[in-house]
Amino acid sequence: MSQYQSFPDASGASRTLEKLKALKLPALAGRSFLDVGCNEGFFCGFADFQGAARAVGIDQSRHFLEQARRRFPRCEFLLQSWDRLPDEQFDVILLASALHYADDQPALIRRLVEHLSPDGVLVLELGIASSRKAEWTRVKRGIDERDFPSMPMLQQVLAGYAWKWMGPSVPQDGDPVARHVVHISRRKPVAYLLMQPPGYGKSSLASGLFAKAGIPVVSGDQVIATLARPPRKAKSAKNAPAPSAALRTAVAEDYSPFHLDRTIDRIFERRLGADLVSLWLENAGKGDVVLDAYVPASRHDDVERLLEARGYMPVQLRWNRVGMAPMPADVAAQAGESFYLSLLGEPGEGAQRSVRVEPAGFVDELGFADGKLTVRGWAVDAQGALPADIVVRVGRQAFPAEALVRELRADVQQHLGLAHALVGYRFVVTVPGVARADELARGFKVAARNGLVFQLAGPLDALFRGSGQ
User: Fold this and answer.
1) Mapping DSSP to helix (H, G, I), strand (E, B) and coil, where does residue 173 land?
2) Long-range contacts of range 143-149, CB-CB < 8 Å, 24 or more positions apart?
3) Which CATH architecture has domain 352-466?
4) How many helices (H) and strands (E) are present in the chain, helices listed first?
5) Using an 8 Å Cβ cutoff, are 407 and 425 in contact?
6) What does the alpha-carbon distance between residue 276 and residue 289 come to, in Å, rounded to a whole number?
7) CA-to-CA distance for 399 and 373, rounded, in angstroms?
């Protein structure tokens, strides 16, 4: 039997080393490799040399396989045809100079792709006939006649896959058809990610481009808003994932459509990101999808990783905001409050900047979830202003107010005759070691650091009931 593959000690009909270079194989270290029609195992030996976890070759020639086992004893060689492929998946499959021997070439490609791992690649070296038409060309060779696809026909055959033409292969003496190398993988559905901040035109882009293309658009912000509401008793769609109680709690806790970054961070901090992504994809089908949802930049990698785990190819779109951006919320709030107080005027020019009042403070409403206490009420110091440094005391421990928001209380202004109404407050505070609201009953106080202790507007249980707890 004539020598086909070329080795340092045996020259064959194939310029095997040059072909190896033309194949543009991916790195094989740690990966599994299958050569279909392996001949004397040159490419399996290369895979083993590269550190492949496993290198397997199949061929119908007992003589070639005996030579292959002698040359590369650490590889595995099987006497069988491509009609009976190994019952497993491989990271890289090679079919070189053999596709034209198949009775049904598209079916063979399909079978090989089915044996790829999820991110695997089929390296296909084949002859491509010169024609502008999508057709199979019957070519008479030295020993037989075989069908070769034109490039337009190959494009039709590979339309359902992700593939790339890698370049020409090495010419074969006496072969009338030019050979080429193509890499083929499973086509993954694409998840187009529009995760820019609010005001960047995400929804306009989604409806103006992707909706017209028939790609379903998922409003991630709307999904979160729905989770923040009390759950309905209506049945979910068949096989649809039901939101977990933990995810609902994480979303509903201090939810605000203006602070979605806090909600998203909280979801991922509690390792509920996979649950959220499942809900985003609930009505997306199995094809491409667009995610229209603000996600903080610090969580972009997490979202992409979870989508990849679901079999998607994430494609993130980034662009600059058109027009002027709004001020950050805390800056705008401080500027607004400063302007509001500036309207009081200077002393002696009309309304007084401050009045002398008896310091007082009240707690009107309480909420509690996942160790976070929400407190709302009003307070004034001797100058008629909201006291600074409000704390919550539980027993002997004091916990400072977090994310304090000043609110207008016109009722308090009118009742006390104050110069302004910016004396209301709302804040959250972390209370470690407390799991239920009733555990706060003993030694619970809200106070300012100047010693002012706020009064409760009613019993603790009534304040919690009033907030829907």
Assistant:
1) coil
2) 146/100, 146/101, 147/100, 147/105, 148/100, 148/177, 149/105
3) Sandwich (2.60)
4) 14, 21
5) yes
6) 15
7) 11
Rounded to whole angstroms, how far apart are CA atoms 171 and 312?
Answer: 38
Q: How many angstroms separate the Cα of 272 from the Cα of each of 176, 248, 254, 258, 300? A: 59, 10, 17, 21, 15
In this predicted structure, the answer to whether residue 58 has a pLDDT above a threshold of 70 is yes
* Tens of pLDDT, residues 279-288: 999 878 788 9
pLDDT value for 347: 46
CATH topology identical between 16-186 and 352-466: no
Residue 105, both tokens: 């070439």
**Are the beta carbons of 91 and 117 closer than 8 angstroms?**
yes
pLDDT tens digits along 234-292:
445 455 557 888 999 889 887 888 788 889 999 999 999 999 999 999 878 788 999 99
The matching CATH number, chosen from 3.30.70.120, 3.40.640.10, 3.40.50.150, 1.10.10.60, for 16-186 is 3.40.50.150
Which pTM was predicted? Answer: 0.66
Angle between helices 42-50 and 16-23 (to 10 degrees): 50
CA distance 135 to 115: 27
Q: What is the DSSP string of 71-87?
A: H-TTSEEEE--TTS--S
Task: Using only the alpha carbons of the chain, give its radius of gyration.
Answer: 35
**Phi and psi (nearest 5°) for 445?**
-145, 150
Q: Where are the alpha helices (DSSP H) in 86-175?
A: 105-114, 151-157
* Confidence at 350, pLDDT banded by 50, 70, 90: very low
- The residue extents of the domains of the chain are 16-186, 190-316, 352-466
Calculate the alpha carbon distances from 313 to 43, 211, 303 in Å.
Answer: 30, 19, 11
CA–CA distance, 383 with 399 (Å, rounded to integer): 25
Token pair 């509920």 in the structure block, residue? 272
**Nearest CA-CA partner of 272 in 296, 251, 289, 297:** 251
Assigned token pair, 227: 């989770």
